[in-house]
Amino acid sequence: MIEGSCGMNAIVVDLDRTLLRSDKTISTYTLGVLAACRRANVPVMVATARPWRTAQRYCDMIGADAIVVSNGARVICGDRRVEYGICRPSAVALLNALARKPGLTMTLETGDVAYSNKPVEEYETILSDDLAGVAEREGALKILVTFSGEEALETVKANLTDDLYYTVANGHLIQIMDKRATKWNGVKAMLDFCNCPSAETAYFGDDNDDIEPIKMCGLGVAVANAIDEVKATADDIAESNDADGVARYIERMLQAGNETLTDVVPT
């Protein structure tokens, strides 16, 4: 059980399919609830698979106190940063191996820029036919592979070095990172920066990368649209992302703590 005047002392939220609606917006209602958290001196933090360049505008909108991006490969808390990048030889070897497999769509995140071997609709990327060369020059924070069959996944598994791991998001996106770059490791570092014990933290998520922080935080909440594995792990289930489930859950906890919700407006 989380302790504190509003039932929690810190909140960590995933973005896509959790806090964000399916159209990638944040409702006025949700922003009002998060503002009420700040008035109640409850830090609001973000933990997302997104890179910083696409997460920043959302973090600015909600006034995030600290941020985990790229699945934990980068942690930002004011002027303090922690980064767990893929070592260059491992990135180069993997990208060279994947390039020999026809048909794969690959994206290399350097941390500030994304490169891909094919156009990727949902990302703003620079096209390159030599991602391994880019990784050698600029480094690699994360490698993404879009797939539609098990063969691509088996190719990734066969070519991972011991310092790398992968997760699958949205059922079709393989995310490859350094083994230190997990959401939970990022959340731990973020909570340490903010002096917030994990036992007094509520975590909200929907996908595979959220399972460990949901287990390890004092309160783990899945949204109703989460995958079954996340819902099975969670302490509780909120309404869906399109029903502003995270904000509605937090509002109930704030009300239980008799906090003033003057900034909250109905949907």
How would you concisely characterize the structure shown here?
The protein has 267 residues and is an alpha/beta fold. The chain has 10 helices and 14 strands. A hairpin with a 4-residue loop joins strand 3 and strand 4 (74-77).
Q: Residue ranges: pLDDT <50 for 5 or more in a row?
A: 1-6, 259-267
C-alpha-based Rg, rounded: 19 Å
Order of helices and strands: EHHEHEEEHEEEHEHEEHEHEHEH
DSSP summary, beta strand count: 14
Broad structural category: alpha/beta
**Silhouette:** globular
Largest sheet: 8 strands, mixed
Count helical runs. Answer: 10
What fraction of residues sit in β-strands?
15-25%
Q: State the end-to-end distance.
A: 29 Å
Strand order of the largest sheet: 5-4-3-2-1-12-13-14
Average pLDDT, all residues: 90
Helix content bin: 25-40%
Tags for this model:
about 270 residues, alpha/beta, 10 helices, 14 strands, globular, disordered C terminus
Notes on the structure:
With 267 residues, the chain is an alpha/beta fold. Helix content is 35%, strand content 22%. It is built from 10 helices and 14 strands. The chain has helices at residues 15-19, 28-39, 52-62, 88-99, 131-138, 150-159, 183-193, 211-216, 228-233, 245-256; strands spanning 10-13, 44-47, 66-69, 74-77, 80-83, 105-109, 114-116, 126-127, 142-146, 164-169, 173-178, 201-205, 219-223, 236-238. The strands form 2 sheets. Strands 5-4-3-2-1-12-13-14 form an 8-stranded mixed beta sheet. The chain has a 6-stranded mixed beta sheet with strand order 8-7-6-9-11-10, with helices on one face. The longest helix has 12 residues, at 28-39.
